[in-house]
Predict the structure of DUF6879 domain-containing protein.
Amino acid sequence: MEARDTYDASYENESLRKFLAGEPDDLPWLQTWLDMIREAASEGRRFARVRVVTVPLTDYSRFGAWCAQFTNGAGEDIRYLERERARAAQVPEHDYWLFDSRKLVRMHFDDQDAFLGGEIIEDPTVIVQHNYWRDAAWHHAVRRDDFANEQGVGRLERP
């Protein structure tokens, strides 16, 4: 679950600048992730996430939706949920990862959107609650391509 409209990810800055300027980019920082997704998908492992976004999209969220076409093409399933729908579904506004529905890592960020680290949560009650929120978000979320077309991000050719 990704619930932030911006992230301070310095490795993406040049690609974000190029995206906003309409310049081509081969996304060098993303290639290792794409290789890992392809390998995992070929082994039958599933990667999925829901991005909760504010509409109209921030520049960063537009960039993320554009990049998601490549991760989805590699085997990940990224879906989008508008923030108002997420609130109506009582989905939390914090980022977290679930591994095999049994291990929870809650992400922490500072006020400038920089990643501070992940906190491993072992309390079964908290893990079950986050599984419920994941399922609720997934139920209301829209496939990346449909969302991108609605938001005018579209599907672009691989850089």
